[in-house]
């Protein structure tokens, strides 16, 4: 018999605390996106400040380093904080990851040095620190939301948390444009631009810092307390405080203490029961992040946004383009996922998303080869829509649902770390192939973009195959179905029909 407190959580009606949890957890994802995606316009500013001898364009290697160093920190953060989430507790380390994000963002704004190399090295260090916090927030936010949610709307709740990524991308673009317009009214001085990019980086911490108190006031999840710490009474008390349910309804009548785990992480039995799930989640997140981050972080190069004005004009153009993509395609894609995820299932929207993305990238390649004017904006944007109403969202959700409570945060962190490795490959590989968009040989640059687009399409085809062969459906299945210890008791989701 399942514990009453967990059954009550699964059946609980949607109420105020669910929405509060979405906002509190979502603010971490918001800051993640703000800090990761504000860097493309900022690198344009840095080019005007520190690379005037190079046509005011930052060197491709330096730009790639600014992208990759934060992603490297994210990889480490996901692994470390994911493990801590299962061994120390979700709530206990949740605030620490947020503090790292705040410290990293503020530190980026205070990057100092007497030469361009020292300033960029300082910025790189703080972006690595920022990445550690960002990495920690991914498994903790997803796990906490999945463990607080009811069974019927669990996918929508986790997708709503992840949709804050789109809001963060838009916010970073809006803040950049506003700062550029305010500072751009003055004479275009290097000192003004040097202050502006620092201000943009530091402003991202404001909404997250405002939610720090509520994050610290959240109780530990009932599933962690009951199934990992084996304290069922405390789990009932915690849920009685935050949910609109009387304690008498969730307290156990004849309490039988839960049995301690029978097998450890990465044991033979773990791989027998959960190895395929972990492989599928990690492989799919790796594939989608190659596509998502390379095309998102480097879109200003794909569309060859001209850089022939001041530092503020250059950054404004890149931020404006990012804002258009976010408003027209990225954010609607997230909202569509929230609406569909618990109606049609994770696997179906993941497969449809991969298939349509592949078709769009292949068609964009064909048009790019036939027409030198470049990639059609609408078709390129629709690829973002289907990514977010598909694999970019589902790869965040499914690892928080497939694994037992004592492994959930760790496995989500492993899958997320695989994704960020893909993001590093995608971002760095883009600059290697396209020469950062600055190669004087127009034909060579055009060929590089063609190679990138057709590669992205091929990766989406691979994602479709992995989804259909390895991934399980988790819609409508209680998280406790994955607590079964023996093969005959395991009641996991079905593979794609």
What is the oligomer described by this structure? Answer: single chain
Spans of at least 5 consecutive residues whose pLDDT stays below 50 are 436-440, 486-492
The CATH architecture name reads Up-down Bundle
Averaging pLDDT over every residue, what do you get? 85
Rg from alpha-carbon coordinates = 23 Å
Structural class: mainly alpha
Let me know the number of strands: 0
CATH topological fold name = Growth Hormone, Chain: A
Whole-number total of structural domains: 1
Q: Which shape, going by the Cα principal axes?
A: globular
How far is the first residue's CA from the last residue's CA? 30 Å
Helix content: over 70%
The tally of helices reads: 22
CATH superfamily: MFS general substrate transporter like domains
What percentage of the residues does DSSP assign to strands (E)?
under 5%
SSE pattern, N- to C-terminal: HHHHHHHHHHHHHHHHHHHHHH
The first-level CATH class name: Mainly Alpha
**Major pleated sheet:** none
Describe the structure.
With 497 residues, the protein is an all-alpha fold. It has 22 helices and no strands.
What can be said about this structure in brief?
Helix content is 76%, strand content 0%. The chain has 497 residues and is mainly alpha-helical.
Which SSEs are present, and which pair or pack?
Elements: H1 4-11, H2 16-37, H3 39-50, H4 60-87, H5 90-109, H6 116-148, H7 154-184, H8 190-203, H9 205-210, H10 212-217, H11 222-227, H12 232-242, H13 247-250, H14 268-297, H15 299-302, H16 311-344, H17 346-370, H18 377-388, H19 391-397, H20 399-402, H21 405-434, H22 442-470
Helix pairs in contact: 2-6, 2-7, 3-8, 3-16, 4-5, 4-6, 4-21, 5-6, 5-8, 6-7, 6-21, 7-8, 7-16, 7-19, 14-19, 14-21, 14-22, 16-17, 16-18, 17-18, 17-19, 17-22
């Amino acid at each position: 018999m399942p514990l009453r407190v967990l059954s009550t959580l699964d059946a609980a009606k949607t109420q105020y605390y669910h929405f509060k949890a979405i906002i509190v957890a979502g603010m971490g994802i918001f800051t993640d996106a703000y800090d990761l995606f504000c860097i493309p316009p900022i690198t344009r500013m840095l080019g005007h400040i520190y690379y005037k001898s190079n046509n005011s364009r930052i060197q491709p290697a330096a730009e790639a380093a600014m992208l990759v160093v934060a992603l490297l920190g994210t990889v480490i953060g996901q692994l470390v904080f994911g493990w801590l989430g299962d061994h120390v507790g979700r709530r206990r380390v949740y605030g620490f990851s947020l503090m790292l994000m705040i410290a990293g963002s503020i530190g980026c704004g205070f990057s100092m040095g007497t030469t361009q190399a020292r300033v960029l090295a300082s910025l790189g260090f703080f972006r690595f620190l920022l990445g550690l916090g960002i990495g920690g927030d991914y498994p903790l936010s997803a796990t906490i939301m999945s463990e607080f949610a009811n069974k019927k709307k669990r996918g929508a709740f986790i997708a709503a948390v992840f949709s804050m990524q789109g809001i963060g991308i838009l916010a970073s673009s809006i803040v950049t444009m506003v700062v550029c317009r305010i500072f751009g009214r003055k004479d275009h001085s290097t000192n003004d631009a040097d202050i502006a990019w620092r201000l943009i980086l530091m402003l991202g911490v404001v909404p997250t810092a405002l939610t720090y108190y509520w994050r610290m006031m959240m109780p530990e999840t009932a599933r962690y307390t009951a199934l990992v710490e084996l304290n069922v009474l405390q789990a009932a008390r915690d849920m009685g405080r935050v949910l609109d349910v009387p304690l008498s309804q969730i307290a156990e009548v004849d309490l039988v203490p839960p049995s301690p785990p029978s097998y450890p992480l990465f044991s033979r039995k773990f791989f027998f029961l959960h190895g395929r799930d972990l492989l599928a989640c990690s492989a799919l997140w790796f594939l989608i992040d190659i596509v998502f981050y390379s095309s998102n972080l480097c879109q200003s190069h794909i569309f060859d946004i001209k850089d022939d004005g001041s530092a503020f004009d250059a950054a404004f153009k890149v931020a404006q383009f990012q804002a258009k993509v976010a408003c027209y395609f990225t954010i609607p894609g997230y909202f569509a996922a929230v609406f569909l995820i618990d109606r049609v299932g994770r696997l179906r929207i993941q497969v449809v998303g991969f298939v349509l993305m592949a078709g769009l990238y292949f068609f964009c390649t064909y048009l790019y080869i036939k027409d030198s004017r470049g990639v059609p904006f609408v078709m390129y944007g629709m690829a973002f829509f289907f990514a977010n109403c598909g694999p970019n969202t589902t790869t965040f959700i499914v690892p928080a649902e497939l694994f037992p409570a004592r492994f959930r945060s760790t496995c989500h962190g492993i899958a997320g770390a695989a994704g960020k490795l893909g993001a590093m490959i995608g971002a760095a590989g883009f600059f290697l192939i396209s020469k950062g968009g600055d190669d004087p040989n127009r034909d060579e640059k055009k060929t590089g973009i063609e190679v990138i687009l057709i590669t992205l399409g091929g990766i989406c085809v691979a994602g479709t195959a992995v989804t259909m062969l390895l991934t399980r459906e988790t819609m409508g299945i209680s998280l406790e179905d994955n607590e079964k210890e023996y093969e005959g008791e395991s009641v996991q989701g079905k593979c794609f029909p």
